[in-house]
Amino acid sequence: MVKGHGWEYNGAYAKKSVDERWYNETSSWIGSNYYDAYRWKYENGTYMYQYQNDPFNYGPVRWEDQFVTNQDDQPILDYQLDDPTHKVITYWKSYVQGKVIVLGIASEKVADNPSFQEFYDKLILEHAVK
User: Fold this and answer.
1) Distance of CA 3 to the CA centre of its chain
2) Contact in structure between 6 and 47 (CB atoms under 8 Å)
3) Rounded to two decimals, what is the model's pTM?
4) Where are the domains of the chain?
5) Cα dihedral across residues 56, 80, 45, 40: positive or negative
6) Alpha-carbon radius of gyration of the chain
7) More confident: 55 or 122
8) What are phi and psi of 110, to 5 degrees?
9) Separation between Cα atoms, residue 25 and residue 92, nearest integer Å
10) 27 membership: H or E segment, kind and range
11) Cα(128)–Cα(130) distance, integer angstroms
12) Beta bridge partner(s), residue 67
């Protein structure tokens, strides 16, 4: 950890710092930035925002979910986050001579889910080879 996600290491200890170190660069390159769910995670002991389209039984918004910050993103699957100010989707985006594919959600939470594996095989790989 050098700097980001709310912390910075100065060589001796970690201290509070910026949430996203390269916000504009990340938006330009991958088309999204991490959704700071901790900032508004709980209200009265429950998650404030949920996905209305949850085909992989993913659950509520997580710390590392990515919200769209670039209009060049090409949607594959919209999770229909009920936060009106953010959009979390699986998408692809052109970058230089290639393509970036972003799941939008934390893959380690769904990697063993057969529905997700089928989605990955059929849609994500289809987009990756075009």
Assistant:
1) 19
2) no
3) 0.79
4) 3-128
5) positive
6) 16
7) 55
8) -125, 0
9) 17
10) helix 23-29
11) 6
12) 33
